[in-house]
Design goal:
10-stranded mixed beta sheet; 18% strand; alpha/beta
């Protein structure tokens, strides 16, 4: 129990904003510096371990109380003040958004993440909080989180799953007004019901609901549903995803009832794991007692209009696919969404397209069918996703598959070194998060020597942290302390430091740097321009191939000849990453293009003045400008994987040897590498504003959340709009076989098209039972490439000009050419309705 004068410590510890607010961390450190370090900067454990005597001393220390009061006042102002969303989002923006994810990486003391997906979800919540976006997160509380990684004596990855005590985590149990724990229940095949309690983590302004199946009354196999992240059998994963999607919607309803929070207007599923949320919303609309009792097609339109689906993987193996039989077992008559027809559920996840597998249920496919708006997480990934899922819209070119792109971003206050912010503020930056532009303006006013000094300070901090971690790792491997004195000299704070840290699936190519071990050694040991490598990453527990890659790196790094220049640090997590990104001079990324959906670690390095050395994949493909880092040439089109790796590894070595290292060590008389610092300045100014999670969340609000809310309100108001839409779609699908382009006439453009020429088009179309109001007749026009395909196309809608008997019409229009050269066009008919998000949404098109 805290003394009354110190009660604000409990308030500060109970809101995870402390994890990205250094002044609050300073207050906790002052409570007891030794315990703060030993608890690894965990406020809840700190307050549980500090002695009563120390607390009494602090309660009578007016200086500390003043600093505590200032931190509490700052939190109150942060939580209560008007922010960007209230000022700029507009009156059509949603009143509340539910954000579902299987993992959330908020802070190292709440280990509910495995890698980039969770870190991205955590940054999404933090940025939403900073902007005042009314978001609520939904996830699961895993008893053991993801695994802790260590190494055997032989360098093989080992996994441990220490069980977490929720009472020692920065979360609180959601309770009913009478104090009883709030729960949700889900019917399961064969009974009994699956029960789950609801924990709440407060992430600044954003509540994060975490469902926990470790509930008395659940049989053991139900209590274990939330045992660990990404573990267990296919059936175990299905139970987790039922709890996340269906249970998550029910938890939102309970949370809104208890707290008075408004119900979400928009539902965002971060990857397909939470896709069953759409089924639960349909169940609420069709069969729930007290609900509107809509038919299935109408309920589907209501639900999908206000749902956003983000796909994160360009690798088919990364998509959850369950056997059709397992889905039939769980979603039969007495299943989790009893009353929703099984055949409708199966159709939503069916791979009923060319090349699909009819025996599986695809969670990503269901995600697209249950969401009117969908996106990839970089421009290149959007392109890859449209190719991957083209089978859902086969009548359209890849460019018109309705999957847009919003490139990921990172939460700067979490990942940027404190010293970097302090440096910027000393040279004119405003510390207010809403005045972020002043940070980039300060870059030009900061002397090169100051930038270099801070980078050296950050590099030294990383070196010390790496030595401590390496010593602990080797002791755990069974190496006697007497044989580890060399660790004191591992790494050098004045040597060019390259970082490489990420998950270890094969496509990320952890060992590409080892293709020519002798050449790598020469780079590491160069007498004038040495390089040092800090490497980290986890392989999935079931991925022996990934573990073998780690072992290869560890064995190379164990070599006494190079072990002072290359280290592998086990158990890559947020705590390791926070000194790693600022301390590295170069961030290396060499995935097999185009399998990196986005990749955000390089963004974090860039915000700390690190330069990227990367394959042009993910975000780097769209924002590399030839001056903010280096692009590793990619041997696209080389079919032999070994040959491709050899070519790209050689290009990597060449870049480090001939460009990166010489620039780093090219110093002036003051020891400052002027050309390097200019690249650092340009990186901060060119990438800084783009890679922020606040930019990303603003994009979601403007491009996806607000349009989804607007459409949702149209269909939700009295359900008449949804009923009409479902009926209209049924009518259009039934009559589409009779829609055709019968004849096209054109003039105005000759054999040598010139800029400014005008193409006049007349299209004669048959619509059968449909009317001109049901369709858009369009000219698709553009450049003809060498394969006689239409590329760089644009669309111009034709106007109704005349009507004839038998459902036939003429549409006219003009196209003004904006470029000369090879030109082509075609005419098409597509469905048109005011609430369709795109012309391709229904997958229907009629061509000549």
């Amino acid at each position: 129990m805290l003394p009354p004068p110190l009660s604000a410590l409990g308030d500060l510890a109970g809101n995870l904003r402390w994890s990205w607010h250094p002044p609050t961390q300073d207050v906790f450190a002052e409570v007891d510096p030794g315990i703060w370090e030993s608890t690894k900067h965990d406020p809840v454990r700190l307050l549980g371990a500090v002695t009563p005597e120390r607390l009494e001393d602090l309660a009578s220390d007016q200086g500390f109380l003043d600093r505590l009061g200032s931190a509490k006042a700052d939190l109150d102002a942060y939580l209560g003040g008007e922010r960007w969303y209230g000022r700029r989002a507009g009156d059509q923006a949603p009143t509340r958004i539910a954000y579902f994810s299987p993992e959330f990486g908020i802070t190292a003391v709440l280990p509910q993440y495995s890698g980039g997906l969770g870190i991205l979800a955590g940054d999404h919540l933090k940025a939403a909080s900073d902007l005042g976006v009314p978001l609520v997160g939904v996830g699961l509380l895993y008893h053991a989180g993801y695994f802790k990684q260590s190494l055997s004596r032989e360098g093989w990855q080992l996994e441990q799953y220490p069980v977490l005590d929720p009472d020692e985590l920065p979360i609180s149990l959601l309770r009913e007004e009478n104090g009883a724990r709030a729960t949700i229940s889900i019917a399961m095949p064969g009974g009994p019901e699956l029960l789950a309690k609801i924990w709440v983590a407060q992430v600044g302004r954003v509540p994060l609901l975490l469902l926990d199946s470790d509930v008395e009354g659940n049989p053991d196999h139900y209590r274990d549903v939330t045992d660990r992240l990404y573990g267990g059998t296919s059936e175990h994963r299905l139970r987790q995803e039922i709890l996340l999607g269906i249970g998550g919607v029910r938890a939102l309803r309970v949370h809104a009832r208890i707290t008075g929070a408004s119900e979400p207007e928009v539902f965002h599923t971060n990857e397909g794991h939470a896709g069953f949320l759409g089924l639960e919303r349909i169940r609420e609309l069709t069969v729930e007692e007290g609900g509107p009792k809509l038919d299935f097609p109408t309920a589907l339109e209501v639900s999908r209009a206000s749902t956003v689906f983000t796909t994160h993987t360009p690798v088919p193996a990364g998509i959850d696919r369950f056997s059709r039989e397992l889905i039939e077992q769980y979603f039969g008559t007495a299943g989790p969404v009893s009353g929703v027809p099984l055949e409708r559920i199966l159709a939503l996840g069916a791979e009923d397209y060319v090349g699909g597998d009819p025996t599986v249920f695809n969670m990503a496919v269901m995600g697209f069918r249950l969401a009117q708006r969908a996106n990839g997480v970089s421009q290149l990934h959007g392109h890859v996703s449209r190719e991957m899922f083209h089978g859902l819209w086969p009548a359209f070119d890849e460019a018109e598959v309705p999957i847009s792109s919003i490139t990921n971003g990172v939460h700067a206050p979490t990942w940027v070194g404190r010293e970097v912010f302090d440096l910027a503020e000393r040279h004119g930056a405003n510390g207010d998060a809403d005045a972020v532009d002043s940070f980039w303006e300060a870059v030009d006013h900061t002397p090169s020597a100051d930038i270099w000094s801070v980078k050296r300070q950050l590099r030294e901090r990383l070196v010390l942290d790496a030595r401590q971690r390496l010593l602990k790792s080797n002791l755990r491997r069974g190496i006697p302390a007497a044989e580890l004195t060399w660790v004191d000299d591992v790494l050098d704070p004045d040597v060019l430091t390259i970082g490489f840290a990420r998950r270890v699936p094969s496509y990320k190519r952890l060992t590409l740097m080892l293709r020519d071990p002798d050449r790598l050694k020469r780079l590491l040991l160069h007498p004038e321009r040495p390089v040092q490598l800090i490497i980290a990453g986890k392989a999935h527990p079931a991925d022996d191939g990934g573990k073998k890659l780690i072992q290869e790196i560890v064995r190379f790094a164990d070599d006494p000849e190079v072990r002072h220049r290359i280290v592998f640090l086990p158990n890559y997590d947020i705590a390791m990453a926070q000194p790693l990104y600022p301390g590295c001079d170069v961030w290396l990324n060499n995935p097999l293009r185009p399998y990196e959906a986005c990749g955000t670690s390089g963004m974090k390095a860039a915000l700390n003045g690190g330069l990227n050395l990367s394959i042009l994949d993910g975000w780097w493909d769209e924002w590399y400008d030839r001056s903010n880092g280096w692009a590793i040439p990619s041997a696209d089109g080389v079919d032999d994987p070994d040959r491709r790796d050899d070519l790209e590894a050689a290009a990597l070595y060449d870049l480090i040897e001939k460009d990166v290292a010489p620039r780093f060590y090219d110093v002036d008389h003051d020891g400052v590498p002027g050309r390097w610092i200019e690249m650092v300045r340009h990186t901060l100014k060119s990438l800084g504003p783009k890679v922020l999670a606040t930019r990303m969340v603003r994009d979601y609000v403007r491009q996806l959340y607000t349009p989804a809310a607007v459409t949702g309100r149209v269909l939700n108001s009295d359900y008449k709009g949804a009923t009409e839409l479902a009926s209209w779609k049924k009518q259009v699908r039934a009559g589409w076989a009779d829609v055709r382009v019968e004849h096209v006439e054109s003039h105005g453009v000759g054999d040598n098209p010139e800029v400014g020429s005008v193409l006049t088009v007349r299209a004669f179309v048959a619509l059968g039972a449909l009317t001109p109001d049901d369709v858009a007749v369009e000219v698709v026009h553009g450049v003809i490439d060498g394969d006689d395909d239409l590329v760089q196309s644009a669309v111009t809608e034709l106007e109704l000009a005349d009507s004839y008997d038998g459902g036939r019409y003429r549409f006219d229009g003009e196209v003004q050419l904006k470029r000369g050269g090879a030109f082509g066009y075609t005419v098409r008919v597509v469905p048109r309705h005011s609430v369709l998000a795109s012309a391709s949404e229904m997958g229907l098109v009629a061509l000549p």
